[in-house]
Amino acid sequence: MVHADRARPLPALIAEASLALAVRSRPADGARLGGDLHDAVLTPAGPRLILGDVRGHGPAAAPLAAAVLAAFRDTATAEEDPVRLARTLDASIRPHLGEEDFVTLLLADLLPDEVRLVNCGHPPPLRIDHRLARLPPPLPSPPLGLDPEPQVQRAQVLPHQRLLLHTDGLTDARAADGTFFPLDRRALAALRAPTLDQALDRILGLLHRHTGDAVPADDLTLMLLQPAPDTPLPPP
To answer: Residue 227 and residue 190: Cα distance in Å, rounded?
Structure first.
């Protein structure tokens, strides 16, 4: 479930910022709740997205995911620096952590000329153009709960490009023979579909064909954005 600015739903917030965004979230094992979390708020500088993944999955991980979201909503619009925000979230959830708990986290500040990322142990985003380009952080940081030390990463996402934020439910999904879901040419073609919603539906279709009829073993969240929604992608 996505919540944005208290006064405005997420689609209106994103449209105001001249962005297009599509989201899909699927808890593991057919449950209603899981350990993935995502949200968006409008800061004075522009939209700020959060995507996180609690250790574990399904309903058992949901309370900690809710604690992270609550802390984000309390502080995300007032804290300008995303690194300080990540540290604030880490401190806020410490009372909720079990002995082996942690939360991978990705913050994305969407500015007119760039995206500023703060990554705490989370799978790196994928920039989509004529190829899929991973955007790993300059220096890896542990997740929340394990003394994160993140840095700001600046990435350019041009109007004709897209950016996919995802949890590891995508790349860790396995076929019956144990092979992981490949981010190959078929995935690129799916993510370059005419609309963002079509792109996510197609990548989920590929994922389903890869895993067969197996019940999803991990939570999955996908957030796909494009800075200028009316700009077509060039031929691959």
So the answer is: 19
3-state secondary structure 147-190: CCCCCEEEECCCCCCEEEEECHHHHCCECCCCCECCCCHHHHHH
Are the C-beta atoms of residues 44 and 70 closer than 8 Å to each other?
Answer: no
How many C-beta atoms surround the C-beta of residue 76 within 10 A? 22
Sheet of strand 115-120, all strands in order from the earlier edge strand to the far edge: 36-43, 46-54, 103-110, 115-120, 152-155
Residue-wise pLDDT tens digits, 138-175: 999 999 999 999 999 999 999 889 999 999 999 999 99
Yes or no: say if 34 and 62 are a contact pair by the CB < 8 Å rule.
yes
Express each pLDDT in 31-45 by its tens digit: 678 889 999 988 888
Q: Using only C-alpha atoms, what is the Rg of the chain?
A: 17
Could you give phi then psi for residue 206, rounded to 5 degrees? -60, -40
| CA geometry: angle 38, 90, 227, nearest 5 deg | 35
The average pLDDT across 217-225 equals: 90
- Can you tell me the distance from the alpha carbon of 9 to that of 228, in angstroms, rounded to the nearest whole number? 19
CA atoms within 13 A on the CB side of 200: 21
pTM of the predicted protein model: 0.90
| Cβ burial, residue 138 (10 Å; 0-12/13-18/19+) | exposed
